[in-house]
Amino acid sequence: MNIDISYGSGKVGFDVPEKNLAGLIRPEKSQKDLTEAEINAAIRGSKCANSFKDSIQGKNLCVLVPDGTRDLPVNTVLESLAEFFGRPKHIRFIICTGTHNAKTERNETLIKQINSLMQTNGIKNFDIITHDCEKAEFIDAGTTSRQTPVLYNAAIREMDVFLALSDVKHHYFAGYSNPVKNFVPGICSYKTTEQNHRLSLDERSRFGAHPWHLCSDFQNNPLAADQLEGVEKVLGTRDFWAAVMISSNCKIKWLQFGKAKDVAGEAFGKADEWNVYEVKPVERMIVSCGGTPNDIDLYIAQRALELTKQAILDGGEILFVSACDKGIGAERTMEHFWNLLAKPMAEIFEEVKNKPYKLFSHKPLRFAEMIGRLRKLWLYSELPEETVKTSHMCPASDIQKIVEQWIEEKPEVKILVVDGANKLALRGV
Fold first, then answer.
1. How far apart are CA 157 and CA 173, in angstroms?
2. Highest CATH level, class, for 36-274
3. Using CA of residue 377, residue 323, residue 421, residue 195, what is the dihedral sign?
4. How far apart, in whole angstroms, are the C-alpha atoms of residue 123 and residue 130?
5. CATH number of 2-27+280-428
6. pLDDT-based confidence at residue 384 (cuts at 50, 70, 90)
7. Domain residue spans of the chain
8. What angle separates helix 74-81 from helix 36-43, to the nearest 10 degrees?
9. Tens digits of per-residue pLDDT, 243-262?
10. Are 325 and 387 within 8 A, CB to CB?
11. Alpha-carbon torsion 357, 360, 363, 364, what sign?
């Protein structure tokens, strides 16, 4: 069977005999793209539309937009929302970078898209700010019950109403990508994010669990609860609205508009229904992040492994297909991500588990835990071979050769192929 999976801005293909194929999993496998009319109906025709119009009339509206590392169809959503944008006194768009770099080519493209759309719709009372976790002016909103200092961008000080654009998908320690993350860590300081992310080491901080989940069995997530408590401190009594969606390849599959808590809970249930797959663990697995921007560097790509690792048996092998054409990661991640990942395994565990947490260090720990339980973790990428070896992974130059090697070693081996792993989650049965 010939299979094409996402890699960078294109595809890469290989063959797997049908008798050896355990399955081919992709997100939203049977869901159609929403039409423009359906998107407009979900936003402009929602039962909350009139309440939203009233809440922003003559007020300062802040629109929280995910940064360029996300493949959210921002233009499509903003075009539908533009009907409302004549009502506020002023609109401030904030690109929610969290700890990502503020000045990037993709963020500049996003800013140009917003400018163009607003000008096309004749709206002049707006500005656009890109969050910088180190250089912004911050306001101290206090400390959460889990001892996270909440320092948020002062650019939202005069804002009366908030509207988050959020593409909901499973997140390996925050439960889901969701509107809360547009605030924390989206527009908070490095220190806030570092203290919040130390909770990623708690095994209860996992995908598919969030305080806003509609099922009480899936509401316990310390890291997500800490983020939510931080948002509540930032918001006070101010309204928090959201346009939440589930998308694939920049095409919207599902969308709701309303108060953030209400629509996020609905989105979590839909994401579980569509994109959680129960699979029998296998000995061999091929995992693609889903292409750019989900595999632009090793730091970003790593989350795809975390969302699929329950499908691989101990002692198995994974072939990770991730272009990493932008390299390892942003400069600020190097010390506690790459420099730590390059150390001997024992030192990685000692550094993260027995010393005060440093932001980004949860990623080398997760890599080390996975590599420790596998026979091999192969990486097919644009990274130099020596770089891959330094990270304790095995460089792969030919996917087909790895597949043939697996079958030669064990003719009856079962190989699971996962494409778009950044937008789904696997559970072993």
1. 29
2. alpha beta
3. positive
4. 20
5. 3.90.226.30
6. very high
7. 2-27+280-428, 36-274
8. 60
9. 999 988 788 999 999 999 99
10. no
11. negative
* Residue carrying the six token digits 């420790």: 372
pLDDT at 28: 65
Chain position carrying tokens 């800490």 = 226
Q: Give the number of other Cβ atoms within 10 Å of residue 58's Cβ.
A: 9
Single-letter amino acid, residue 333: T
Average pLDDT over residues 137-161: 98
Percent of the chain surpassing pLDDT 70: 99
117 membership: H or E segment, kind and range: helix 105-120
Q: Are 227 and 144 in contact (CB under 8 A)?
A: no
What six digits make up the tokens of 139? Answer: 């306001």
Bridge partners (DSSP) of residue 50 are: none
Query: Per-residue confidence at 194, pLDDT binned at 50, 70, 90?
Result: very high
d(CA 183, CA 127): 18
Task: Please state the pTM of the whole predicted model.
Answer: 0.92
Distance CA 139, CA 43 (A): 32
Using alpha carbons, select from 147, 213, 151, 158 the residue that is nearest to residue 184.
151
Mean pLDDT of 295-314: 96
Q: How far apart are CA 427 and CA 208, in angstroms?
A: 11
